[in-house]
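no rush on this but wanted to send it before i forget. theres a chain ive been looking at and ive put its sequence and its fold in token form underneath. please have a look and point out which stretches look like helix strand or loop to you. thanks a lot i owe you, the record is right below:
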Amino acid sequence: MSFSCTSPNGENQSQNQGSSSYLDFSNRDDQFEGGIRMIPIKTPKGEFKVWTKRVGNNPTMKVLLLHGGPGMTHELYSCFDGYFPSEGIEYIYYDQLGSYYSDQPEDQSLWTIDRFVDEVDQVREALGLNKDNFYLFGQSWGGMLAMEYALKHQDKLKGLVISNMMSSLDEYEKYAKEVLGPQMPAEVFEEVMEIEKNNDFENPRYEELLLEHHYQYHVLRMPLEEWPEAVMRSLKHVNPNVYVYMQGHSEFGITTGATLKGWDRRADLKNISVPTLVIGAGHDTMDPAHMEWMASEVQRGRYLFCPDGSHLSQYDDQKVFFEGLIKFIKDVDNGSF
């Protein structure tokens, strides 16, 4: 079955010849729950289950969505429902181990990059994803995980998308403190840095300052009261035990002692040969110039810039984001990339 955006007369093809089969769950092993599967994952600490939900059928375009955090949820991608089905692209929501809809073991030894990479590969295998159909999309921490997966398993991939994630956490911290922080009123940034210096992250003033002066400018460029319900739900469902252990408390870098501190894959990008889309945004917490550079470092890269977007550019620069993402997936699929 083939899909395209429009037919010669401009009509939507998914409605003409694809929509009934695209949404058909008949004879699928996930028909009983409408695409939901709890996939068993083997770990050094035993077997656990992770939550997935497939939407659509397409034999050559299947996109696995890796959420950020660590410890956030698939709910950040609810807006994909508004764009992928009409293009005939199959996609899979997925909560990583420790996230809200999946099992949440408390053993911190599970929260390592290597184990998460192994988990993604187990999910891939369970879903029947392979080099002929498997696109891996990762945003923020999910982008880091996607890079790590590609560096180990790119022979299983058809396409890779790194969204809103730099390849060096030291460079991310530098950008946050030297570029983004000074965009705040001087006295506000000084107070934020003082709280961080004192490791006083439980101070309600810290979140208060970030909500007013940072989040609605660089995480999602909308007044807080207008943030999408799905985003608020994901924030409500975050697992702080995973997030703090790996990332730390700070919004201006990785807290000393957090396990991701010092992560850097700049020198390894040249080893990624699979078709790769890197998405950056003009108001992101991540440096868009660095992400443009990343697209030039991988062997077969493309850069998508969302000028009005921030860290969640799938919402605040939605048209540019989805047009570019869909074009990449289809260009790879039809061999024109």
Remarks:
- The chain is about 35% helix and 15% strand.
- The CA atoms of residues 199 and 249 lie 9 Å apart.
